[in-house]
Acyltransferase 3 domain-containing protein (Sphingomonas turrisvirgatae), 389 residues
Amino acid sequence: MTIPRPDPDADAATVRAEPTGAYFHMDAMRTMFALLVAFGHAWALIIRDYRPPAGWLAEAGYYFAGFGHQAVILFFVLSGFWISRSVVRRAVRGWSWRSYLVDRLTRLMPVLLGALAVGGLLDTIAVRLLHSPTHLGLTDTYVLRIDIARHLSWEVLLANMAFLQVIVPTFGTNGPLWSLSYEFWFYIWFPALWLALRHRRLSLALVALTLGWFVPKLALAFLSWLCGAALYGVVDWLARRPPPRRRLVLAFTVTAAIALLATLADERFVENTWQDPALALVFSAFLLGLILLDPPAVAGLRPMASYGARASFSFYATHFPVMAFACALLLGSERLVPDVYGMALVALALLLSISFAWVFAAQTEGRTPALRDWLCRVGRRRLRGVAQG
């Protein structure tokens, strides 16, 4: 799941300074959540399905490999916080759909197009040249039980470029791209609703809400995303009032952390319709306490925070086809037992995908400001040309 963090906008009405320490830890969380998702995928691609008894290290691997979906929900909360923050502040200054969409699309499209290109290339080589058992479904892993050839069609590619993974398959092996399409539609839904309800300003973007009727899972996931938006609303409201007692905030944060861990443990084995919004709500409560406490940055977490801010989006968008290709090179028709060799291959697949994403991000996420500036210059030149004509 992807969380493109917008540039912080100045807000003169906010009384207290921005909680930069809390934001540092939120960036580190982005890396941690992406690692949980990627670890679960690497484990499922390489390690055979659970068979008792297993050693304690293997048991731990099987256990933590099952938190990928929960990590995506936590991503949604962070995304809801950052994007709603940007939308609300833009609306106060004077809303422009053009400016907003330029910012969002210049953040999303380079990564999406690059991920589709890389994934398509690696998948094609794996299927047509390497005849990879992983890609042909011979390893029977639950994370890759699809017809790869059908998923590599031009129709699927074009639909994925238009963020329509909510109604069509994801391109090639890159199943994680489903959450990117969810994010895109949330980026449209929230400002459309906010402008209509808060500023009495209707737009054609409201029509996009009908997609939730046809894709109920998308509408349900939006509730989790909105927990992050509600978190920003509470933080913004509290920022204009006297700060609460630190002892009370600390007690609240510890309680929320315990509730979060309990909810995660429960959802690891129990499934119900409302578990994702419940998890998002508890996580939002924990983030509220973290933001109010605003703990200082921790030197040991700086690499994680830096990676989270610069490359976690790319890591999430590219890790699966990179890992699957590594399996095409290293794995036969049977997945491995969770011994030292098997777990070493899992670690290697993770390291390869992390390293690749760092380089990939430098050419995509790292060029977002330059791309945005270029598009703005082109737009201004066209407007001047129209005015002069």
